[in-house]
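Today's session is about reading a structure prediction critically. Students often jump straight to the picture, but the first step is always the sequence itself: look for stretches that repeat, for charged clusters, for runs of hydrophobic residues. Only then move on to the predicted structure, which in these notes is written as discrete structure tokens rather than atom positions. Here is the chain we will use throughout the hour.
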Amino acid sequence: MTRGLLLAVCLAVVAAGCRTRNTGPSQAADAVRVFEVKGVVRELPGGDTVRIRHEEIPGYMAAMTMPFTVKDPAELAGIQVGDTVTFRMTVTPDDGWIDQIRVLERARPEDVRPQIEGVRITRLVEELKVGDPLPNYQFTNELRQPVNLADFRGQALGLTFIYTRCPYPTFCPRQSQQFAEACARLKAMPDAPENWHLLSLSFDPAYDTPSVLRAYGQRHNYDPRRWNFLTGAMIDIDAITEQFGTIFARDGEGWSHNVRTVVIDAAGRVQRIFVGVEWTTDEFVAEMIKAARVQP
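Below is the predicted structure for this chain, in token form.
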């Protein structure tokens, strides 16, 4: 092979290698998933949110009832509770929304009656507010160790409620990602207090066994010395979630639920209740540092 031909081959290989490595745009496009979905409108809370009982989304999500963010709230004009609709759902690794909402069938009177999905035996408990002491509950963590909430007295405690099969990026996956970021941030801060801990409690104990929770934690690079995943008796899960305003119900093979994240101070009192997932890691970390510095 002559020097000129060898040089041309080398340049071609280099150029091909450069083209192969430049995969950013295509990878980003692959991360976006789009689904055509059908469901029945259950609630119109206002703003850009609509709660829909949707059919199974094959390969992604079981049938359930959940709130969706509408990309353009104007699309909700004329939509009524009980309407059967189709819509386009777009999800990315960290966000999700719907658009192209179209009414297939208008609501009938029987469609707007309250839906009762099932019955569970629960305790009579009172709502917890900022300043209230955290009651003691006993759960089991992902290492199959017993966990008493009272044992965290003297530490700032971050608590949230999830189920591991939740696929929608703005619900449980975002809560877990935010906890992972907060944990890493607190561990890396040279002046951060040492008395803090994070807990993620599953409300799907039939599926979320300790081994399942451990695998889920490992996917989020969790540190069991700082962050644990809990399961337990449904009667206890019902009680503590109700006290913080978390509502969940079995719907199809998944769960319909809202989102709460709580910060408990070192004296064992409720310091902050975050509603939804709009809080930032900075806000949460600041609350945890403040909570850790409270005198027990």
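Discussion point for the tutorial: Residues 182 and 217 are 14 Å apart (CA to CA).
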